[in-house]
Design brief:
The chain is an alpha/beta fold. The protein has 2 domains: about 150 residues, 3-Layer(bba) Sandwich (Glucose Oxidase, domain 1), CATH 3.50.30; about 200 residues, Rossmann fold, CATH 3.40.50. The chain is about 25% helix and about 30% strand. The protein contains 10 helices and 17 strands. The strands form 2 sheets. A 10-stranded mixed β-sheet has the order 8-10-9-11-12-17-16-15-13-14, sandwiched between helices. Strands 1-2-6-5-4-3-7 form a 7-stranded mixed beta barrel. β5, α2 and β6 form a beta-alpha-beta unit. α8 crosses α9. The longest helix has 11 residues. It is globular. The model has no long low-confidence stretch (mean pLDDT about 95).
């Protein structure tokens, strides 16, 4: 690891200097923070982080090694990662590579050696914003100007290209599959397919732009709407497809899929000040009177005021009271804002896969 000096500039002109690992160059994205203690590889390869510079709140990130089987997609998706320290060496059983190797191979930067606590406090008080990391530009004013010219997350339709371009099969292990699920891939994490398979689902994964006719032609017992990046308000074709699918089979949506279902039912979505990202977010299931510690990664939320009769808020975030899920028994819809598959994160919410299976069985 041979660190270079690097410059970080936020949209409001605030700047930090540190050391970089991984790729050199100039990189832009929405700067957000994640509170997970572990899981740097899963975070970096999660398609929901496409177009974002991710600040990790733990002091040391990358002190254990990564493994190919733990990636959540086929590539690093984040625009960059920032932490107080990237250890120069890593250890741990089963590791194959360190964070520097992962970043170098992906052409993505990592920035460390600066006060990340002050940066996170700034994002919490001022909200997330655009930012840039550069090993080439040393003038904060010049880099700041380029940051303000870079695309904003609002209005971005990143989910249309974050997932697969062609439909493919993701079957359950031999003898285990008993229902068929059609999954729409807006940037679907690999662990979602793994857990659907483990629950007894043979899965056919469709691109984000697939039509309702194409999806229903596969004769699904259930339909799954995945996570993904960007602004749900920019995905009107996906919303229209979801509208056409409602009522045809039980539907389970997570993260962006939850937001798309909310909009399909008539609700609006709005941008959160700094979002929810990490593996320690408390959520209350109002129907089951239970609390789950959940893994989350989202910057938008559903406004419950627009949900129709028959749909009700079923889950709320105990930190800020925002909607974390809704159920609509009549339309056979289950939707949650968080990640029941974890990766990284706790397993408290994995029972939702069994609930989805029960909806299909009934």
């Amino acid at each position: 690891m041979n660190p270079r000096s690097g410059l970080l500039v936020l949209e409001d002109g605030t700047s930090y200097r540190g050391e970089t690992i991984g790729a050199g160059g100039t990189f832009f994205g929405e700067i957000v923070f994640n509170t997970s203690m572990t899981g740097f590889q899963e975070v970096l390869t999660d398609p929901s982080y496409r177009g974002q510079l991710v600040v990790m709140t733990p002091s040391h990130v990358g002190n254990y090694g990564g493994r190919v089987e733990e990636e959540e997609s086929g590539r690093v998706q984040a625009a960059g990662i920032l932490a107080r320290d990237f250890p120069r060496t890593w250890s741990g059983a089963g590791g194959s590579f360190g964070i520097a190797e992962l970043l170098e191979g992906a052409g993505v930067p990592g920035l460390s050696g600066f006060d990340t606590r002050s940066l996170v406090r700034k994002l919490r008080s001022g909200g997330v914003m655009r930012a840039g990391i550069s090993t080439e530009i040393d003038d904060a004013s010049r880099l700041g100007s380029l940051v303000r010219e870079s695309p904003a997350m609002e209005g971005s339709a990143l989910a249309l290209t974050a997932g697969t371009a062609e439909a493919y099969a993701c079957p359950a292990p031999p003898g285990l599959g008993r229902v068929h699920v059609a999954a729409i891939d807006y940037g679907m994490k690999k662990n979602l397919c793994r857990l659907l398979n483990a629950a007894g689902c043979d899965v056919t994964v469709f691109p984000a732009g697939a039509s309702a006719g194409e999806i229903l032609a596969s004769k699904p017992d259930g339909i799954f709407l995945s996570n993904g990046p960007g602004d749900p308000a920019a995905l009107e074709p996906c919303v229209e497809t979801a509208k056409a699918l409602i009522g045809s089979a039980p539907i389970f949506g997570v993260c962006l899929g939850h937001q798309i279902l909310g909009r399909a039912l008539g609700a609006s979505t709005f941008k959160l000040k700094f979002g929810h990202r990490g593996g320690n977010h408390p959520v209350q299931d109002l129907d089951g009177n239970a609390i789950a510690i959940t893994s989350q990664n989202h910057g938008f939320a559903v406004d419950p005021a627009g949900l129709p009769s028959g749909a009700h808020v079923s889950h709320v975030n105990l930190n800020d009271g925002t909607v974390e899920g809704f159920r609509d028994p009549g339309r056979r819809i289950l939707a949650v804002q968080y990640h029941p598959e974890g990766a990284p994160g706790p397993h408290d919410a994995r029972g939702l896969f069994a609930e989805f299976l029960g909806m299909m069985d009934s």
